[in-house]
Amino acid sequence: MTSNNPSAFLLMVNGQIEGANFPEYDDMYCKYCFVYGHDWAPTSGLEEGISQITSRGSGSQNLVWNFPIDITFKSTNPFGWPQIVVSVYGPDTFGNDVVRGYGAVHIPFTPGKHTKTIPMFVPESTSRLQKFTSWLMGRRPEFTDPKVVAQGEGREVTRVRSQGFVTLQFNIVTKDIKKLGYDTTSTEHAPAGLSGTQQPYGT
Amino acid sequence: MAVEEEDPGETLRRSLKAKHMKRKKKLFKEMVLESPPDEENEETAVQEERGEGLQRDDSSPVRSPRDLPPRPVIRPGSSQSETSMKQRVAEKLRAAKSKTASLLEQESIIEPVSRLQSLRDRETLTRFDRDIDQDLRVDEDSSFAARLKFRGAARSAARDKRAEDGLPTAEEAYNFFTFNFDPEPQDKSRKQRQSRRREAEEEGEAESENEEEEEEEEKEEVETEREYEGQQLETRDEDAPLVSDVEEDLFVIGQSEHDFLEVRRAEYLGYSRRLQRERETVFVPSMRTVPASGKLPENVRPRYLEEEGLYVGERPSVSLTNRNILENRILKQAEGREWFGDDGRIMALPDPIKESSSRPPLFHLEDELDPALHTVYRKALKSKHANRYIAAMGDPQTDYQLDVDVSGLIFSHHPLFSREHVLGARLAQLYDQHLTGKQKKLTHLLTDKLNGLRNTIRNMLELHRGEALSQVTQHRIAEYKQEVRHTRHLRDVEQEKDRALLKNIIRVWKELKTLRDFQRFTNTPYKLFIRREMVDMDQDELEFNNEIVMEVSELRAEAEEDYQRKMSEYRRRHEDWKSWRRKQKALKKKQKKKRQQEDEDEDEESEEELGEEPEKHDSPEKPDMTAVEEQVREKATRIRRKPGEPVLIPELTVSGPVTPNEQCPRAEFARREDVAKRSLFIKVLYNDKEVSRTDSRTLNMDFRVHFGQIFNLKIVNWPESIKLQIFESVGSSSSQLAEVCVPVPESSVLTGSAPSEEMEFSSNQRVTFNHEGVGSGVPFSFEADGTNMQTLLTSGKLSCCVSWAVGMNDVPLAPPSNHPVGGVYSGLMQMDAIACIGASSLNDMKKLGKWAAESRLDPNDPNNASIMQLLSVVSGGEMAVPEYFRLEQLQEEFNFLSDEELQRSRRFRLLMLRSQEVPEFRHFKCVPSVEREISEKVFQEYERRIKEGEIIDTKDHIDAHRALVARYLQRVRESVINRFLIAKHHFILSDVVSEDEVPSIGVLGLNLFKLAEPKRPLKPLRKERKKVTAQNLSDGDIKLLVNIIRGYDIPIRRPYTSKPPVSARSARPFTEQFTAPVSSQTPVQGSDWPLGQPLIRPFVEVSFQRSVLQTSTAEGPNPCWNEEIVLPFSAPNGDYCSTSLQSFKDEVFINLFDELLYDVVEDERERGNTIHTRIERHWLGSIKIPFSTIYLQSRIDGTFKVSTPPVLLGYSKERSLGSDGGYDAIRSLSDGTFLSLFITIEPQLVPGETIREKMKEVKFDSQELERLLTACEVFEKEAGRCFSDRPCLTTVIDMNGKTVFVTRFIRPLNPPQKLLDAFPNSPQDTMELVARYVSLIPSLPDSVSFARVCDLWSTCDQFLTLLAGDEEEHAVLLCNYFLFMGKKAWLIIGTAIPEGPTVYVLTYEQSRYLIWNPSTGQHYGQYDIFCPLQTIGCLINTDNVWFNMQPYAAPVRMSFDVSRPKLWKPFFSRAFPDPGLSSVQVRTTRTNDSSFIVQNYPSHWY
């Protein structure tokens, strides 16, 4: 693996979905999945996960999941850099499980520890009557595929309402990114001695 | 003194000690917490210590037995020694020993080791080292030494004790008796204490003198203590060892703490102790009232401000207990007293809450409001001046300043003018005019110019004397002459004006003088002197005459010229006339000639040719030269000074005396009084906002007001307008007289250089007075008899100057002149016409230059300076404006790579192709990051495909034609797919968000109704299952359920013998013949079955995706299985998304077999106990159902015809009425074998059939009218709302991808003549033949060929060319053929089994409706229950589209009478008539070709 001319780079992500802040809701759990481009392939770890149900502590606003993420991607092209899509669910007043938020964020590029807080949103009902019935029946509008939130396509037809935040923590380790000619670290932190980076387009 | 001082010193010391004790206690307590020792022990120790501390100074401590514990350690065995000791000692020792033993045994060393060490360490560092005497130090050291020794002794003692049974060594004994433990440290401690105390005293004294009060002192002590914290620590430290010296053993034992500290008791604090401890930290404020003395400084009596008569506000009410608690709490704080006022109460502001509400009450809210209080809606107005900031120009730091200089004003008329003033003002005005005229010297200038011009002409003429004048010169002379004439005219006007002015001045002056005489007083100081300047008589005369001669000659020349011109004109016209006459005459002659031959018609014509007769002109008169001279002379006398007459020069002075007030009559006096009362001021308005005003100045007698004020306006907004408003005030009231608008100065107008301007103003106020003032706006007269009335309005001149200020370094504080065109136009309008067009942003310089050249601007006129400059720049510089412009000029810089490189790189090419969703690469994963890893092979297939576009490979196809068709279809398909790719990226809400639909009232009602329905209905309906979206499925989740219910009319076996069929009676009437399910246990009878035995034992085998399952065998030709077969389903590549499922091409094969059992037992003897049979399966027929149909329809329920081979050997079918033709329902009933099936998918999948909907979203191009398309949309929407399950079709997409209205496809077309000729007598057979013909054209379902994109309709011509098409094409062609044959035919848009949504053809024949399946060529009667058509959505023919509005959609239960709008809703109705759509079909089909081809297909026969 430690060849001088690697053909792919590795991105190792571990971290956790630390928790969320949904001021009005309680007893929530979350799901995550990754969305990535054609040139990416997960080599190990779980691509999707569903957390435990967490209740809010007395007097604290935060829900804590501390739900670990551990995945390694392999890629040949930074295009389609993976994004994590988090969707949060919880019971409504009638005990129906409804979605409380969708959110997505790119996995950080740079190695190191990152803490991201992503604002969450849910699709809105198309009409007021719909809103009422969906509230009554506990069948709120949902995205057919949560991965929609990681894409720009087709979003223009939706209306969403924002609610809550989810905090994620990532620890990023990369391998061979620099060798392939992609410089993700800022220049002042870049190791000076590294030379002879192979350009992927060797013309 | 010493004694007196001793006292406070003593107290201080005491308190200090108490504090130390306290601290020590705390320490102990901490230790207690750390390692809970014997509690009581500890407690006593503490108490003892305290007691000791308190007593220490007065006397030597009384040693309690408690102090002893150390000692026994030192000499544990001493009590055993036999030396003579005092009994007391022995006793003590004994007692102590037991105690020590316990102490030793159970550890409980209180002092931690660390502390000891720290103490020692610190001791060397104390500040006291310096202060304390050397000997003291020695003492201390010695004590340390002793201590050390002791420790060693103790250790050894402990060891020895264990070893020697408690007997002390000699050394120990010696030590015990020789060492003096107590007094020395005691002394030392005292000494030290004293020294420390002394020092503390000094400190205390130094700190503050006031030591009288105990509390204060204590406070101070705290301070001291804080200040000398280090010291304090050290004192304490010093103290500690001193104290503990007595009980040194404690420390000694502490060393070995680790050895003993093992077992602990659970910590428990007694309740009382806890309370006690809490009390130390917790403070509970008492609720009792604090005495006033506690809250006030000592010896101060509370002072009540109220009693002293001062106002004290009402305090906010606080309950007494709360107040007490608060006061107690505050007092506990160090500076608590500051919170209390003089009256001993907490300081507080008066209650801020007012008792009454300050807001006016709003009564009767719902009643009618006072009309005055009604809110009036005003539409919001956009402020004109908002956001016109100059700062927006991007120069925020600059400030701009306008200087408005209001110097003064002069009234040319004022209501308070007396008559004399009126005249005086007039005189002054005239004089001003005179002066300005004189200044300009216009007359003089013009005269000079005239002379100059004349000289030029003369010179030119002289130059060219005798020679012929060139064209140019002639032209120039003519121009000059023109100029001379113009100038002369101007000069004459000017001269006349001058003269009139002079006359006027003199006349007014005379009037003024008479007025003064008349009224006998003087109001104005005007005086006019007229100077006479004598001139040289002769010269004057000469000039005068010269001038006249000149003029006369010029005039004559002009007149001559004019005459010449007129003459030439006349001559020309005359010529015209003459020639006309000639022609006329010639014509007349001709006509005469002609008339002899021809009619008059011709004559008229020819006359017309000549046109109208030109008017005959009179020759112009010759001008009268003598009259000219007279005219000139007369004019000269009128406007010019007579020769020899002196030049009159008027001079107006204001030096005349004014009659003082006393000598005036009363009316005049009143007027003057009134004048004195008046005062004036001026408001300066910038952008309609008042920014400042001048001081008020009184009106003088001469009606001049001098202000002389300069206002500096710092401006932020663009200057829009600057106005000066003149106000006149009488007493306190003031009224606006007039408003003067001052133009906004150009940015070049700067303060200092700008001249003051006089702005005229006037007001149309009507003012009358009853004194001498003439008023304004009212008529008055100078004459006594009141004639010659005049009306004057208040008017005057305001002298002011507006300019841009000059800032530091002579920088003009003016905004940049190149204003943006948008916001400033109004401000700039007054400045310059060119600026108004936007001189800076003028882009068409050429046009401007052209205009300037054409209008002959005077280049020397300063008014034109800016334009000339502009033009010179333009013409000189020829600004290099490029003739082109570029979009994205910077694109090159942004390019990642050049295009060639991008193409050359395999990697980039791959990435690009993938992003373009080229099918080969669409799902390419992990494009290698390095070029070399991509082989050329990747592109080979793609390139081949691209290349193949042109080359047709005939080998793959049966014939060239098919290859051509395939190629064509491929191309169409590509274009459609490209279109679809665009559509795919077009989302609607339901694609993204899943949301439950709002239940309509109908659904709710149905649900309510359901509550009442029976639990177990007699005819249960299949319930809709919950649909599952296909995405989150995996292998094994989906199952295909095939329910095989029964079969009809299965062929029966023929006996081997050629007997007549056994069951001749059976075959068809399954209704009666149908038997209950036959069990399979019927004994097998071997190969030759007797009569009455089952003729057939059919079973059904279903195969799907390599799994094959079969039913049990039933018996008879009409078996009933009623079995459910469950087949697993796995999607290709595990991809369960709806698109891949749709394109899934697997088929479900349902095969019908006959099971034959052969007994193969060879030995008959074994027959009794052995069964040996052979099972044979004879295939009878099969049904194929594509999976996509099942998927899209979600279930298939019906009876299907089994496709059987034409000849089934060994089987026969009985048909009773097979031979007679006709549209017999019965015939078609029995025609074939049928299977009743129910097929579905479990769980039910949501069919992803949104593509069709989506395609509707994406508008295709269309040549249809917009109105028609809208109507289509409305029609389809309405249809969908009424009956969502009935397909409705109004527009279709043709091969070119354009939307076409569906009726355009229907048009009678001629079938091949051969077909028509085949059965001349039987139209029925002909129709069948035609249907057969159509059905033979290969079927190519669109949904497969166009990747389930959409239906494309090709015209019949295209269809026959391609020889491939969908049901639509077949149906259209069939329908068109039928129409040609004179039948009534419609297209049926409906759903059928198993095709799903499809198109059939309906014909009306002999009062019956027939339904034709165009793909098979079969036809069904309307009441045929085996008709595959299940639902009819709409009917289409050439004229119209009808949508089925009947309650039932099955053909059996419908009426096809389209003329009834209640049953069939027409598209074109009276409201929306048919616009007359032309057909898209070609008039004649290429029947010959196609029929030839059709007939030549090897697979086709008839």
Specify the number of helices of chain B: 46
Span of the ends, CA to CA of chain A: 25 Å
Helix content of chain A: under 10%
Low-confidence stretches of chain B: 1-6, 32-83, 107-142, 160-164, 184-189, 204-248, 250-254, 392-396, 600-611, 818-842, 876-880, 1057-1092, ...
- Estimate the mean pLDDT confidence of chain B: 70
**What is the number of strand segments of chain B?**
35
Helicity range of chain B: 40-55%
Question: Which chains have the largest interface?
Answer: A-B, 40 and 33 residues
Biased composition (Basic residues) (chain B): 14-27
Protein name (chain B): Coiled-coil and C2 domain-containing protein 2A
Biased composition (Acidic residues) (chain B): 36-46, 201-224, 598-612
InterPro entries (chain B): C2_dom (IPR000008), C2_domain_sf (IPR035892), CC2D2AN-C2 (IPR028928), CEPT76/DRC7_peptidase-like_dom (IPR056290), DUF5523 (IPR041510), Tectonic-like_complex_comp (IPR052434)
Q: Could you characterize the architecture of this molecule?
A:
The complex is a heterodimer of chains A (203) and B (1502). Chain A is mainly beta. Chain A contains one helix and ten strands; from the N terminus they run E-E-E-E-E-E-E-E-H-E-E. Chain A is globular and about 60 Å long. Residues 189-203 of chain A have low confidence and may be disordered. Chain B has 1502 residues and is α+β, with helices and mostly antiparallel strands. In chain B, the strands form nine sheets. A seven-stranded antiparallel β-sheet of chain B has the order 32-31-30-29-33-34-35. In chain B, strands 4, 5, 6, 8 and 9 form a five-stranded antiparallel β-sheet that branches. The relative contact order of chain B is 0.04. Classes of the chains: A mainly beta (203), B alpha+beta (1502). Chains A and B meet through helix 1 and strand 9 of A and helix 30, helix 33 and strand 14 of B.
